[in-house]
Automatic annotation (TrEMBL):
It comes from Roseburia zhanii. It comes from the Bacteria. It holds the Pfam family YbjQ_1. Belongs to the UPF0145 family. PANTHER family: UPF0145 PROTEIN SCO3412 (PTHR34068:SF2), UPF0145 PROTEIN YBJQ (PTHR34068). This is UPF0145 protein H8S17_04485.
């Protein structure tokens, strides 16, 4: 499966199959949430939240790819990511793009 954030793949012609997406909602446990809130006092990277978001993007991408594979796609083009806060300490991440089949 080829994944790109452009609307083309050099040297490939394809037909569009449709929109595919994957999403997840992630949160940290209360202990990590408290330690990260202390970090905001002194500043610096919030590593636990960074890891949470990286894991969320990976899971959303995996789910998007699974949906594309269900359509017998060869690639997903024009991939985008979006996130939003659902509640304090929890975020939704969505990955979406266009599933395509090579001709």
């Amino acid at each position: 499966m080829i994944l790109v954030n452009t609307d083309y793949i050099t040297g490939k012609e394809f037909e569009m199959l449709g929109l595919v997406k994957g999403s997840t909602i992630q949160s940290k446990n209360i202990g990590k949430d408290i330690t990260q809130s202390f970090k905001t006092i002194v500043g610096g990277e919030l590593k636990a939240y960074n890891e949470m978001m990286n894991d969320a993007r990976a899971l959303a991408t995996k789910r998007m790819v699974e949906e594309a594979e269900g359509m017998s796609a060869d690639a997903v083009v024009n991939i985008r990511y979006a996130s939003s806060a659902i509640m304090q300490g929890a975020a939704e991440v969505i990955a979406y793009g266009t599933a395509v089949k090579f001709v």
